[in-house]
Design goal:
This protein has 253 residues and is an alpha+beta fold. Helices cover 14% and strands 30% of the residues. The strands form four sheets. It has a four-stranded antiparallel beta sheet, with no helix packed on it.
Length: 253
């Protein structure tokens, strides 16, 4: 929905009604309304082939109260309707209500055609759309966690999951939804001391704890229907990187 104001006015809120087809309905709880926000592109990225500079409509934010005018330009809302698999086929109708600071709400009609087929529970198209640079810098540049002002490991996990959830709901799968999920363990030091290259002189890792890891995968696979997950560093013959190092947890990243 694109609002093109011809005079200044204040928009208080945007809400949807139920969509109805006779006795059948799609609940308004299944209808999300977000405002499109704009990001200023001031310089090109070395990993993006385009050369666009200027504002680009990209993020979707909560649709809240705002003041519109011809000077501020168009105001865009993105409406997402989630149709459950058991919804009866047919034509569903309802309205989007724009509540203004003055006067009656402005109604925008919705007419949705629901077809008589069901999409697969898991998409047959497997994707790997990244999402692993939330805290990983390229050439020392800023990262997503800097933009959000993240300061702790707990906040980093919350931020990453918010990104992963949004990606999963829009059917472009993150590289690894368990990227910041801990795998617990206990350990013993190498019996002949550190930095001693002798047979059998290895760390002993035991009592592995996959509780948080399994909970993370259960949520993303069984609820959000993610159809692929990349598990890092599982072949010791080709990978000498082990991200869960023994010792106390660091206070910083």
């Amino acid at each position: 929905i694109v609002l093109r104001p011809k005079q200044p006015f204040k928009l208080k809120r945007v809400v949807s009604t139920h969509l109805r087809n006779g006795r059948a309905k799609i609940s308004k709880k299944n209808i999300d309304i977000h405002a499109v926000d704009y990001v200023p592109i001031k310089r090109n990225s070395h990993i993006t082939p385009t050369s666009y500079l200027g504002e680009i409509g990209d993020p979707q934010v909560a649709a809240g109260a705002c003041r519109l005018s011809p000077e501020t330009g168009n105001h865009v809302f993105w409406v997402t309707i989630d149709v459950a698999a058991d919804t009866a086929a047919g034509i569903y109708e309802g309205q989007i209500h724009l509540h203004l600071s003055e006067g009656e709400p402005f109604e925008i009609p919705i007419r949705l055609v629901v077809n008589d087929f069901v999409l697969p529970e898991f998409s047959p198209f497997e994707s790997d759309m990244g999402g692993f640079h939330i805290h990983k810098s390229i050439n020392g540049g800023a990262v997503d966690s800097d933009y959000h002002g993240v300061k702790s490991k707990k906040d980093l996990k919350r931020l990453a999951n918010a990104y992963f959830e949004e990606m999963a709901r829009n059917k472009f799968t993150p590289k690894n939804v368990a990227l910041y999920t801990e795998i617990g363990m206990k350990w013993e030091p190498p019996p002949q001391g550190y930095n001693v290259d002798k047979p059998g002189n290895f760390f002993r890792l035991y009592d592995w704890d996959f509780a948080e890891f399994n909970q993370q995968l259960d949520y993303f696979i069984n609820e959000l229907k993610v159809n692929q997950v990349t598990i890092y560093h599982t072949n010791p013959q080709i990978s000498n990187v082990f991200v869960h190092l023994p010792g106390k947890e660091r206070k910083e990243f």
